[in-house]
Specification:
Layout: E1 7-9, H1 25-37, E2 40-44, H2 60-76, E3 82-84, E4 88-90, H3 95-100, E5 112-116, H4 126-135, E6 139-143, H5 149-153, H6 159-163, E7 167-171, H7 172-175, H8 181-192, E8 196-200, H9 212-223, H10 225-241, H11 260-263
Parallel strand pairs: 1-2, 2-3, 4-5, 5-6, 6-7, 7-8
C-alpha cells in the first residue's frame, strides 16, 4: 500500500540569513514555492546548528522564532508548505549533553535527530557517540553518508553503524550525479544493499537541481515501486509521527552486470 500524500523533506536549509541557505526572506519564499511545485507538502527546517552560527541560532527559542517568521511569510504569500522544526547537527562530543539540556533540536520535535560528520576521515569518537545517542532514546539519522571519504573507500564500513541503530539518509544531489560519479556509485551501492531509510533534498537555494521527484525517478528503477514508497513516503511520515521506521529492502539487490554495450554507452 502506498501513501498518497506529498513528500516530506527531512533535510533542507530554508531559513533566510542563517547559514548557507537563502540570503533573504524573498529568496526563502521562492525556494518554498519550488518545493511545493515539486510535490513537497511538509519540511523539517534543518539549519546547521553548531558553533559556526551561535549568533544567529544561539538556542532553540531563536530557531523557533525564525521558523515562525518564515511561516508567516509563507502564509501571507499563500505557499502551502508545512514547516516543522529540525536541525543538522555536526556530531561532536558536546551534542549528547546539549540534547539532555533540550538544546539540540530533533526532527519535528520527535525521537529522530539529524547529524553529519566531516567529509574526510571518520572521527575516532563517532561510533561510540552515535551509539550513546541511540541509548538516549533518540535515533541518529546520518546525513549523506555516501559523501564521506571513508564510506566511499569501503561502503561496507557503514554496516556496523547500521547494526547499532544508526539510520542513513540519501541526499538528492549525490544520486543525481552532482558530486561526481564516485559518490553516485557509492550511493547506488548503499541503496541496493538496503542501507538507506530516508531521503532528503539538502536544498539550499531555489535554483538548485535537488528535486525529490527527480531523485525518486532515479531511485525507483533500481529498487522497485514498493521500496521507493517506503523510502520516500512511508518512512518520512513515520519520522513525523515518532514511529519506528520500516526496512526499505528485505534483502540486498544484486547490481546489474556490466556488458560491453553498456561500457560503450549503448542500450
Amino acid at each position: 500500500m502506498t501513501e498518497s500524500q506529498g513528500y516530506v523533506d527531512l533535510h533542507l536549509h530554508l531559513l533566510p540569513n542563517v547559514d548557507d541557505g537563502p540570503r533573504s526572506m524573498e529568496d526563502a519564499v521562492d525556494m518554498a514555492r519550488v518545493l511545493v511545485d515539486d510535490g513537497v507538502a511538509a519540511a523539517t527546517v534543518t539549519p546547521h546548528f553548531n558553533e559556526w552560527n551561535p549568533d544567529l541560532l544561539p538556542n532553540v527559542d531563536a530557531l523557533t522564532e525564525q521558523i515562525d517568521s518564515l511561516r508567516q511569510s509563507l502564509d501571507s504569500e499563500q505557499v502551502p508548505l508545512q514547516l516543522l522544526t529540525g536541525a543538522e547537527h555536526f556530531l561532536t562530543p558536546e551534542l549528547l549533553h546539549k540534547l539532555k539540556l533540550g538544546e539540540a533540536p530533533t526532527l519535528a520535535g520527535g525521537p529522530y535527530i539529524l547529524v553529519e560528520l566531516p567529509f574526510g576521515d571518520k572521527p575516532i569518537y563517532a561510533d561510540e557517540l552515535l551509539h550513546q545517542l541511540g541509548l538516549s532514546e533518540v535515533m541518529p539519522v546520518l546525513a549523506h553518508p555516501e559523501r564521506y571519504r571513508w564510506v566511499q573507500q569501503d561502503p561496507d564500513s557503514i554496516r556496523p553503524l547500521r547494526e547499532r541503530g544508526v539510520l542513513l539518509q540519501l541526499t538528492a544531489a549525490s544520486m543525481l550525479g552532482h558530486y561526481g560519479p564516485g559518490i553516485r556509485k557509492t550511493a547506488e551501492r548503499l541503496l541496493l544493499h538496503g542501507d538507506y531509510h530516508l531521503v532528503g533534498s539538502d536544498r539550499h537555494r531555489a535554483r538548485q537541481s535537488r528535486s525529490l521527484s527527480e531523485l525518486e525517478a532515479a531511485v525507483a528503477p533500481l529498487i522497485g515501486s514498493d521500496a521507493t514508497d517506503v523510502l520516500f513516503r512511508q518512512n518520512p511520515r513515520r519520522v513525523l509521527r515518532g514511529e519506528p521506521l520500516l526496512p526499505v529492502l528485505e534483502e540486498p539487490i544484486q547490481p546489474p552486470k556490466k556488458t560491453l554495450l553498456s561500457f560503450l554507452g549503448r542500450s
